[in-house]
Amino acid sequence: MKKLIFLFGFLFLAATAYSQEKITWLKFEEAVAANQSNPKMLLVDVYTDWCGWCKKMDAETFTDPEVIEYINANFYAVKLNAEDTQRTFDFMGKKFSEAQMAAAMRVRSYPNFVVIEPKLQNIAQLPGYREPDAFLAGLNELIEKAFRPKP
């Protein structure tokens, strides 16, 4: 019986740990739909296929356990290819390609992280590659400056 309890406990911990092994990336329209039932900020990773710093973010920053936990807990995370003109989706009554959405968000460098507040009205940008600690610090500072109520 003790072995069975130990086995279930181990499986539970393994499942919990597994759920935080990577960031849950969504498509833009999936994040918007999820936001309707459970409002959270959106974190949009705007990238291109040729961007070396984007690949470095994926390999180093977005695999960091603290970054994974923070993003999964506080955001709907979205990957948006700034050069994809084929995949389209509807947003606020208009049809956008990923490239059109990146342009609408005024993204001009990569990687670029766009934070959209839960009401989907205001955005703020955090451009450039950052190591895990610097990324979290920059993200927190951006949110504090851009979205916190002013006294």
Question: What would you say this structure looks like, in words?
Answer:
- This is Thioredoxin fold domain-containing protein.
- Helix content is 47%, strand content 23%.
- By secondary structure, it is an alpha/beta fold.
- It is globular, with a radius of gyration of 17 Å.
- The relative contact order is 0.16.
Distance between the termini: 59 Å
Number of strands: 7
Shape descriptor reads globular
The ordered string of helix (H) and strand (E) elements is HEHEHHEEEHEEH
Strand order of the largest sheet: 1-3-2-6-7
Task: Give a quick account of the main beta sheet: strands, pairing sense, barrel closure.
Answer: 5 strands, mixed
Rg, Å, rounded: 17 Å
Percentage of β-strand residues:
15-25%
Q: How many separate helices?
A: 6
Organism: Algoriphagus limi
Domain Thioredoxin: 6-144
Protein name: Thioredoxin fold domain-containing protein
Keywords: Redox-active center, Signal
Summarize the structure.
This protein is α/β, with parallel strands linked by helices and 151 residues long. 47% of the residues lie in helices and 23% in strands.
What attributes does this structure have?
single chain, 151 residues, 5-stranded mixed β-sheet, 7 strands, 47% helix, 23% strand, disordered N terminus
Write the layout of secondary structure elements.
Layout: H1 2-19, E1 25-26, H2 28-37, E2 41-47, H3 52-61, H4 65-74, E3 75-81, E4 88-91, E5 94-97, H5 98-104, E6 112-116, E7 123-127, H6 132-147
Parallel strand pairs: 1-3, 2-3
Antiparallel strand pairs: 2-6, 4-5, 6-7
